[in-house]
Amino acid sequence: MDTQPILVQYQTWDSEFLSQSLIWHLRVRHCRR
């Protein structure tokens, strides 16, 4: 039961990281245009 919270936290962090990466890539592309 001590592994569940860590897994959830990791998933949330991964999701946030992917979201930020996507936004950053879009911003860079828009800025380069």
Describe this structure in words.
The chain has one helix spanning 4-32. The longest helix has 29 residues, at 4-32. The radius of gyration is 14 Å and the shape is rod-shaped. The protein is built from 1 helix and no strands. The chain has 33 residues and is an all-alpha fold. It is 88% helix and 0% strand.
Key features of this structure:
33 residues; 1 helix; mainly alpha
Structural class, judged by helices and strands?
mainly alpha
Let me know the largest β-sheet: none
Low-confidence parts: none
Strand content: under 5%
Radius of gyration: 14 Å
Q: Count of helical segments?
A: 1
Order of helices and strands: H
Helix residue percentage: over 70%
Terminal residue distance:
49 Å
Mean pLDDT level: 78
Using DSSP, what is the number of strands?
A: 0
| Shape call | rod-shaped
Topology record:
Layout (H helix, E strand, L loop, with lengths): L3 H29 L1
Give a short synopsis of this structure.
With 33 residues, this protein is mainly α. It has one helix and no strands.
